[in-house]
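Flagellar hook-associated protein 1
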Amino acid sequence: MADLLNTSISGLLAFQRALDTTSHNIANANTVGYSRQLPDFVTRQAQQTGSGWVGNGVDVNTIQRAYDDFLASQARTASSQYHQSNTYATQAERINNLLGSSSTGLSATLQEFVNALHSVADSPTSIPARQTLLSQAQTLVDRLQSYDDSLRSFEAQVNASVEREANTISTLARNLAALNQQISSAHSQSGQPPNDLLDQRDRLIDELATHVNVNVVMQEDYSANLFIGNGQPLVVGQTYASVAATPDPFDPTRRNISVLSAQGSVDITDSISGGTLGGMLEFRSRMLDPARNDLGVISVALAQVMNQQHATGVDLNGVSGGDFFGVGGAQVLSNDGNAGTGAATVTLGDAGALTGSDYLLVSTAGGWSLRRTDTGASVSMTGSGTADDPFLAEGLAIVVSGTPAVGDQLLIKPVAGAIAGLQVLVKDPAGIAAAAPITSAAAAGNAGNAVISAGEVLDASHPQLRDTVILEFTSATTYTLGSDPTVYTYISGEAIEVNGWRVSISGTPAAGDRFTVSDNASGSGDNRNALKLADLLSQPVMNGGRTSLIAGVGAFVGDIGVKTNQAQVTRDAQKVVADEAAASLQSVSGVNLDEEAANLIRYQQAYLAMSQMIRVADTLFQSVLQAVRG
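Predicted structure tokens:
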């Protein structure tokens, strides 16, 4: 029955709820993640009378959150992307600072080594110059190994971060499942949304998004299901899965990310994105691993070209040069899930063919297949994989053994261990092979004007390389070589190749003129091999013979700088996007104290008006009683 008193009381209670809600908003104006709440007023069902429908007052149907799911999702995604880009950029800056210094960086160290080679070429008998060269070579090795140690330290930090992130995500998942339980229970008991619990849950989801990208699917009971990676369930209703840092199946020292549930463990490392975890994994795959491999390729190329050229010279003692640098070999890692006994031994070939990628060797029903790990592209191989006929592919010689099962995998890391094994093998300054092993000379009594070049070594391993050979002209256009009775036709300037060396004679010789190519026994004062060593680092020996070592180092350092700059730009852009998305959400959900103050006055006045209505009702009621008493 409609009446003035009940109508007034309904308004009094409704505006009391409104005042309670407003005071709650003001009290939480500075609470992170709080969404302002609004009373939803609805008119009570009117009462039908003979004179029409008479209203019965007002109720508060519910207390609503000022919350926009679309804006919240946008803000959460933007925040996740910003934290990923910020983590990636921060780590990239560390590598860039490590390698990019113009005074102590890799380019500067390599240039100092080249300068030392030139000093030896300028003074081939100078022991101090030779000692300086060995010192610079050791400095170069130390610098490369220092970089490698630093990059290994970065990887250890990534592993520690992955473990820390996994624990944090698991804790958040557990708390979110508990909140889901509380929210569902509160909703089932009251039929109303528990706004403050929803805020707590959304704040935890927002925090989770700063660690990893998460997909949220809301349920009718206000619980939220969360998925990460490629759709792996993290929280479903009141249950949750743990996230753990698990050993890489090839390298147990490397940490991957797996979801652990009642159904088992699923490795989701390759599908993780967003947040600090996504940033760390992106940094490892896009920058750290390539940087280590690129340094390895540089080290292998340096050792190969130096060793090859050094072996063609002789030292101050007349001894043929050996290897100048030692370098570590390729690593082959077996998957811990392999069922067979397949194994492989990998030998590095031409450094110019090395790509800097790791490779996955997979046993198939038809044999072995090879593919790159950075692009996933298949790599064709020649050979049969035996010791006599190894698989050949992109600078690698692969010999397989054992009995693999179909699907077994071997991870080949061609240059991962190169720097660890890098060392200077020449310890004695006199042992630097700065001289060529052969020397040429024209006989003193030659009648013609022909001259002979200094000569160069084509095959340092030729057994007769240092044997004396006399080239004697039988006429102005013919000559013989040593005891060989063959008469050769002379063409001025044409190369003459014998016993692993090459000379050329230019001019017009006379019959009987003689030229001698003989052993450069002491090598004293000869800088021919030192000049080639100094020039070698400028020759194209990398990247399929298109890039020199110096240019390769410059390109490597430059690429690190470009990647870092791109990461910084991306981070700055993502921050703007994240800030704008957060501001958009805050404009809907945030507490505006001016607005709340206005509401406070409005509801207070309404409340006072309702109080007056109750007083009027009381006055009318007392008037009726007075009239009845007479």
